[in-house]
C-alpha cells in the first residue's frame, strides 16, 4: 500500500520544491495538493470540518505548484486533492493536465470533486444544484480532447468539436462498456453512495474519500458498481485522503484492499513540516537509499 502526503500549501508554508524533494528522498509515493480559487468573505456555506482553516484562502494554484514539484523530482507521484472541475474551463483545464502529465513522465493523478463552498462556486457561474452534471459534462469534454483521434462531445453543460489537441496524457486508455476511457488516473472524492459510485464506474478510475470510515461496507458496493459497468477489477484504485495514520489503521486499510493512503501534513513552514515528516517516516514502506543526496538550500 502506497503512502503519500497532502497539505494546504500556501505562500507561507514550505515551498513545493523543498517539500517534493523531501518526500521523494524519504520514500513517500506522491504529493497531493488541494484547490480553492478564493474564499468569499460573506459566506453562508458551513465548512464541512467545522471552523474554516485560514490556509484555504491562501492556497497556491495546485497545477503551478505541482509543476515546480515535478521539475525537482524524478519518481514522486503528483496529484490534486481535489480539482474543482466545475470552476474551470474544461478545454483549458485539459491542456494544463495533459501538459503536466507529459512533462512529469505520466506521474499525475487527477483527483476531482464537486466542492462544498456555494459562494465560491457561484462566482465561477456554477449553479449549485447542477454541479454534478456540470462536472460530468466537463470531464467528458476533457476525455474527448485526450482521445487518440479527434472526438466531439455535446452535453447539456459543455461541448467541444472534434479537435486536434496535444499533448496527450501518458496513461493508456482503459476499457469500459461505453468505450475507452482516456486521460490520467482520475479519482472522485465524496461520501459513499450509489450515485457517486455510478459516476466513478462511468468516467473515473477510483475513489478518493476523506478518511477511512465505513469502508468495510462501502468498498463491496463500489466494486459491484464497477463490475456492473464492465470495468476490470484490477483497474479500480482507492486512495484515502487526510489520514492520520496508526499502524492499526494502515493494517486495516491494507486488509480491505486500499491502494494508497494520503497522510495529512500541517500547513507550516519548512521546519514544522520536516518535523512532521520525521514523525511519519515509520509508516512509509520503502525508505530511501542510504546514499540518497540530501536536499540543500542551493536546490531551492
From TrEMBL:
Residues 17-242 form the Luciferase-like domain. InterPro entries: Diverse_substr_monoxygenases, Lucif-like_OxRdtase_Rv2161c, Luciferase-like_dom, Luciferase-like_sf. GO terms for molecular function: oxidoreductase activity. The keyword Oxidoreductase applies. It is an enzyme of class 1 (oxidoreductase). Its EC number is 1.-.-.-. It comes from the Bacteria. Transmembrane segments: none annotated. The keyword Oxidoreductase applies. SUPFAM superfamilies: Bacterial luciferase-like. Keywords: Oxidoreductase. This is LLM class F420-dependent oxidoreductase. It comes from Streptomyces longisporoflavus.
